[in-house]
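Task 17 of the worksheet. Students: predict the tertiary structure of the chain below and write it out as structure tokens. Keep your answer in the requested format; marks are given for formatting as well as content.
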Amino acid sequence: MPYSGTYKKEENDAFKLSRTGIELFMRCPRCFFLDKKLGIKQPPGYPFTLNSAVDHLLKKEFDFHRAKKSTHPLMKQYGIDAVPFQHENMAVWRENFKGVQYLHSDTNFFIFGAVDDIWISPKGELMVVDYKSTAKDAKITLDAEWQMSYKRQMEVYQWLLRKNGFTVSPTGYFVYCNGQKDREAFDGKLEFNVLIIPYKGDDSWIEKTLSEIKKTLDKDKLPTFSSTCDFCAYQQKLKAIGKM
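Model answer:
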């Protein structure tokens, strides 16, 4: 059985590594090491309950078409020839702490990640779909540097499904809901513009990254501070104060 918690080099069972864990390593190997090797986690953020509500309602909406094996009107609007994918494991694949799973034998990591949705084309190609919600006046794009995490998120899901034997399209889709702030009154409801943004993924970085994660965890030395990590900057300032 795979184990979670802190990594133990001498452990024979597979170590559970989530998609978010991989993302943490990409952002800051030091914070990743503190979390996975020493059990020192970053302070938790606030829950995005409104975003979760939007996700829940989108899933209900697309599940209606999944049951009917029909194309959602939004998919028709964007010319996407597909229907929501029906599979006996769909509920598990969406469940946090379970998701789509794969045992990576080279590292003995048990990789998992929970998807928002999966569509399927007439050719039998799966399309990974991720729901996002925001409220901004500017045009919605995927061009911001911080959105690289969104792209890596989709690529991990694509990789996991491929490792489970599915044919996966390189193109996935972000269903983006943008809350409208230009209405005359709130009236107890928030209205959204919903758009679909395609993204062509490339999962070639994942195998190399897993190898780097394994090497990092097998060492006893804490990685250096990251110049782009807010948590590292905070630790460095505390360290500097302590020397005063």
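Marker's comment: The longest strand covers residues 126-134. The chain has two domains: 1-45+205-244, 49-98+114-203.
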